[in-house]
């Protein structure tokens, strides 16, 4: 096996581990939020459209957040604010009760 195959396998393992972490984390959150750049899980979300000189953008405030990003050391954060000029999708997750 050459180093490219090993790197591909390593990246595939990391993606699978992140997906498995997401599946477990999703049980703890109320909302799934998706922007053009990444996805989030949160227990509180506020999307505020803001009229700027270049047009409308969205200010998204999330609290109690899990960030779907493999390179982050700590994916759980207490609060984050996202600014997006593109669509922001918010879905309410179904309770597992």
Structure characterization notes:
The protein has 97 residues and is of the alpha+beta class. The chain has one domain: SH3 type barrels, CATH 2.30.30. The protein is 24% helix and 46% strand. The chain has one helix and five strands, in the order αβββββ. Strands 4-3-2-1-5 form a five-stranded antiparallel β-sheet. A hairpin with a 4-residue loop joins strand 1 and strand 2. The longest helix is centred in the N-terminal third of the chain and has 23 residues. It is globular and about 50 Å long. The N and C termini lie far apart (46 Å). The mean pLDDT is 91.
Give a topology summary.
Blueprint: H1 3-25, E1 31-34, E2 39-52, E3 55-68, E4 76-84, E5 89-92
* Distance between the ends: 46 Å
Please state the overall shape, judged from the principal axes of the Cα atoms. Answer: globular
Percent of residues in helices: 10-25%
β-strand percent reads over 45%
The poorly predicted ranges are: none
Features:
about 25% helix, alpha+beta, single chain, 1 helix, about 100 residues, SH3 type barrels
